[in-house]
């Protein structure tokens, strides 16, 4: 079957998607993709995965490939610098996604060291080989995501080369490789528009997308086929619906999805910090429990605390004004506006000037203690051992003394993350449960033995009479009582971990046959299926 071309692929396989969730490392995982899809996203990319690691590490690959029927259409993104490795990684996923994407836009230092992402944009021959090799050998289309280059002409030529190589969709981030961190600045939509006019495949725009208004404006000004959001989506997953939910509603919906499709705690924590960015600036005391949360239940508890704190201000009608002049309460999901490079530069210069002034004072000997009078000096109480007390400690002592005290009592200290009492109680409960199971099994064995002995005593086992010799009878154990004792012994051995499950199944199967209760093969398969379900 002939592979679909760019616009045909976009219209049929991707449903003409205009609202796209960007590939984000450790951020566009399955629960977040599902949350975004439920609120307007029409196409999602996976996080960027390292192609070499994806091919070699089965555990890494298993986590990455988690998806479901609701998670479509889906494009997998890989970083790569070897045509064969990229193809091998793509072949692992071509049966569960609609396309694979080559990352040519990552500007981070790790991409420089790993020789991938935006640091391949100077090696056009290598980039051409990677895309073309996959395009010729995969059953699904290949796409790519790039950053703009230094000039308009070079950027357009770069995009045309990618189209010739076989890229069926080109996503353009309207910032250069150097525009990152404090120097991020604004994306240039004019360069994106120029690429759209120069190539014959669909183009997605990325950059400056913080609201649905931005999405519609970008579509109109650039003429692109779709708009991709990254940071805007992280701060408001309802962005493509044009809604601004309360921060706890968005968090609770996400946490419910995490219960169904577990992911790492660091990923969950990162999402909540972004969702609650403006809220945590107002209620900074909530940062500590969020940063220390180790299980999902802790995250849910923090979300409830966020709601309680915000509701106090909701009832009082406390609101904030943002740069666009709109009244936007901090308890609603909303975009984060980065400081401009000029503002950042002023702050850096002010900090440097302040540091130089303090160094000059120190050199002149005017003040032997270099302190910043504008910052309050923290005073610590002393622990009985002489060390400073921890401000977060439940007992207001140092960590070493706290550890000893928690072991002696026993007790917990959330400030030092010591959960000694909790762990002991958990072990005690587990031991009680195991003991209860053991007692129940022994009681069951006693009841079975008593039942069999009763039958033996009341009726006995009739010996084969002379008149029935030669007649075929159903197979039964020669000595039912001895057979029952054997079963009891095996059950006790299993309970004590002295016998394998294979031996158990073989003997119990013989018992079932003697009782006339053995399963047919179809019934066994049915039971196996039901147990898996």
UniProtKB/TrEMBL annotation:
Residues 453-480, 496-533 are annotated as: Disordered. Residues 21-298 form the DUS-like FMN-binding domain. Its cofactor is FMN. Residues 508-519 have a biased composition (Polar residues). It comes from the Eukaryota. Transmembrane segments: none annotated. InterPro entries: Aldolase_TIM, DUS-like_FMN-bd, tRNA_hU_synthase_CS. GO terms for molecular function: flavin adenine dinucleotide binding; tRNA dihydrouridine synthase activity. It catalyses: 5,6-dihydrouridine(17) in tRNA + NADP(+) = uridine(17) in tRNA + NADPH + H(+); 5,6-dihydrouridine(17) in tRNA + NAD(+) = uridine(17) in tRNA + NADH + H(+); 5,6-dihydrouridine(16) in tRNA + NAD(+) = uridine(16) in tRNA + NADH + H(+); 5,6-dihydrouridine(16) in tRNA + NADP(+) = uridine(16) in tRNA + NADPH + H(+). Keywords: Flavoprotein, FMN, NAD, NADP, Oxidoreductase, tRNA processing. Belongs to the Dus family. Dus1 subfamily. PANTHER family: TRNA-DIHYDROURIDINE SYNTHASE, TRNA-DIHYDROURIDINE(16_17) SYNTHASE [NAD(P)(+)]-LIKE. This is tRNA-dihydrouridine(16/17) synthase [NAD(P)(+)].
């Amino acid at each position: 079957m002939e592979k679909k071309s760019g616009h045909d692929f976009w219209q049929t396989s991707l449903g003409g998607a205009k609202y796209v969730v960007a590939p984000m490392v450790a951020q566009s995982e399955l629960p977040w993709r599902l949350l975004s899809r439920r609120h307007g996203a029409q196409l999602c990319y996976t996080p960027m995965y390292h192609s070499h690691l994806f091919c070699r590490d089965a555990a890494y690959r298993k986590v990455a490939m988690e998806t479901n029927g609701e998670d479509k259409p889906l494009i997998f993104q890989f970083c790569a610098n070897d045509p064969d490795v990229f193809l091998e990684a793509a072949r692992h996923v071509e049966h569960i996604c609609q396309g694979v994407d080559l990352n040519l836009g990552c500007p981070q230092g790790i991409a420089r060291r790993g020789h991938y992402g935006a640091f391949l944009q100077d090696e056009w021959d290598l980039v051409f080989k990677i895309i073309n090799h996959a395009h010729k050998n995969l059953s699904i289309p290949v796409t790519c995501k790039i950053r703009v280059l230094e000039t308009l002409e070079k950027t357009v030529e770069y995009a045309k080369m990618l189209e010739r190589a076989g890229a069926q969709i080109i996503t353009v981030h309207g910032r250069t490789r150097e525009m990152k961190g404090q120097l991020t600045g604004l994306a240039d939509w004019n360069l994106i528009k120029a690429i759209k006019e120069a190539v014959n495949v669909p183009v997605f725009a990325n950059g400056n997308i913080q609201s649905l208004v931005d999405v519609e404006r970008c579509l109109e000004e650039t003429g692109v086929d779709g708009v991709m959001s990254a940071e805007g989506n992280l701060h408001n997953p309802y962005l493509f619906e044009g809604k601004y939910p309360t921060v706890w509603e968005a968090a609770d919906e996400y946490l419910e999805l995490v219960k169904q499709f577990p992911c790492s705690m660091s990923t969950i924590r990162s999402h909540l910090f972004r969702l609650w960015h403006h809220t945590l600036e107002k209620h900074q005391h909530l940062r500590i429990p969020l940063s220390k949360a180790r299980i999902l239940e802790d995250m849910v508890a923090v979300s409830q605390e966020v709601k309680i704190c915000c509701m106090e201000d909701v009832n009082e009608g406390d609101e904030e004004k943002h740069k666009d002049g709109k009244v936007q309460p901090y308890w609603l999901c909303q975009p984060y506006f980065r400081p401009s490079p000029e503002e950042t530069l002023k702050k850096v210069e002010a900090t440097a000037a302040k540091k130089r002034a303090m160094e000059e004072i120190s050199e002149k000997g005017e003040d032997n203690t270099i302190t910043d009078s504008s910052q309050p000096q923290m005073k610590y109480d002393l622990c009985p051992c002489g060390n400073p007390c921890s401000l977060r400690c439940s007992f207001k002592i140092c960590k070493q003394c706290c550890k000893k005290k928690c072991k002696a009592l026993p007790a917990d200290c959330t400030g030092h993350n010591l959960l000694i009492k909790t762990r002991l109680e958990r072990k005690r409960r587990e031991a009680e449960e195991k003991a209860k199971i053991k007692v129940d099994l022994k009681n069951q064995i006693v009841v079975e033995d008593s039942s069999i002995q009763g039958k033996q005593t009341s009726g006995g086992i009739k010996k084969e009479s002379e008149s029935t010799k030669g007649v075929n009878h159903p197979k039964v154990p020669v000595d039912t009582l001895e057979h029952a004792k054997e079963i009891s012994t095996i059950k006790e051995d299993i309970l004590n971990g002295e016998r394998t499950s294979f031996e158990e199944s073989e003997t119990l199967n013989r018992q079932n046959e003697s009782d006339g209760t053995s399963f047919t093969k179809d019934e066994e398969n049915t039971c196996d299926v039901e147990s898996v379900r």
